[in-house]
Design brief:
Layout: H1 6-19, H2 22-30, H3 46-53, H4 56-64, H5 80-84, H6 96-105, H7 119-124, H8 130-138, H9 153-159, H10 163-169
Helix pairs in contact: 1-2, 1-3, 2-4, 3-4, 4-6, 6-8, 8-10
Length: about 180
């Protein structure tokens, strides 16, 4: 019986990531699936995909297997940390474990995406939890960085009416 091709292993790895199945991810990598493989040679790596889906156990398994923390997706030029820090809606607020794991492994808190956004800027403009914002700030993320549109995290959080996030880093000085 022939061993599965690298293309088949890649497809199966991305499927396991989508399903959030950390055990299958580990098995497929052991069988030869490339930890940083991309479907059809483009798009996101398994780590980017797992972070975007909030699958913390899969993120941890991929980090343990040596996944490239700085790899970018093919569309927005975002890293796994950018995607972990982003939430589409209120139900996706459970991303702190992904952010924590990525930062602990050495992901850069001020990495830039294709529009000059840091993970903090992405988090400030989305439904991401206060905990994710706090983790990024504790890791040294700059609140002063501005993207190509000259927006800072404070600007985008205020514009999106996410005032609880703003209070996390806004400390008024003495009178």
């Amino acid at each position: 019986m022939e061993a599965p091709s690298s293309e088949v292993l890649c497809r199966e790895l991305h499927r396991a990531v989508t399903e959030g199945n950390a055990d299958s991810v580990r098995s497929l990598i052991q069988a030869g699936a490339g930890v940083d493989s991309r479907l059809n040679g483009s798009g996101g790596t398994p780590l980017v995909q797992a972070a975007a889906m909030g699958h913390a156990a899969v993120v941890s398994a991929l980090i343990a297997a040596g996944a490239d923390l700085q790899a970018l997706d093919g569309a927005a030029g975002r890293s796994a940390l950018h995607w972990a820090a982003f939430a589409h809606n209120e139900r996706e607020r459970g991303r702190a474990a992904c952010v924590r794991a990525l930062l602990a492994a050495g992901a850069q808190p001020d990495a830039l995406d294709g529009s000059g956004n840091t993970p903090l800027l992405v988090a400030a403009a989305s439904w991401t939890s206060q905990e994710c914002v706090s983790l990024l700030l504790a890791a040294g993320a700059s609140v002063h960085h501005s993207n190509i549109f000259r927006e800072t995290a404070l600007h985008v959080a205020a514009a999106a009416n996410f005032n609880s996030k703003v209070s996390c880093w806004w400390q008024p000085g003495p009178p």
